[in-house]
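Q: I'm building a small set of examples for a reading group on sequence design. Run inverse folding on the following structure and report the sequence directly after it, with nothing in between.
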């Protein structure tokens, strides 16, 4: 499952929101979660991986979940993106 967002936070994805995404992804033990942007795919369970994407306002970010709780994990990650004002769903 996957969902794409357009980054709207004026600071992009920096340490605090990246930590919120990593903490959320880590709650789902039997689910793999990835972030894909700028032709690079990293695990969402690594803060350094997420920060290495260097996401800035206007960039697009695709969150990908695979495994037993993929739907639940994607919903939780979407809530973090929207609630934290990081991004909006990009169709």
């Amino acid at each position: 499952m996957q969902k794409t967002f357009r980054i709207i936070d004026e600071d992009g994805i920096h340490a605090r929101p990246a930590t919120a995404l990593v903490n959320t992804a880590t709650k789902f033990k039997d689910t793999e979660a990835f972030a894909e942007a700028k032709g690079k795919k990293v695990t969402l369970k690594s803060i350094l991986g997420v920060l290495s994407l260097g996401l800035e306002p206007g960039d697009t970010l695709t969150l990908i979940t695979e495994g037993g709780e993929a739907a639940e994990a994607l919903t939780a990650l979407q809530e973090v993106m929207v609630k934290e004002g990081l991004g909006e769903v990009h169709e």
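The chain has one domain: 2-89.
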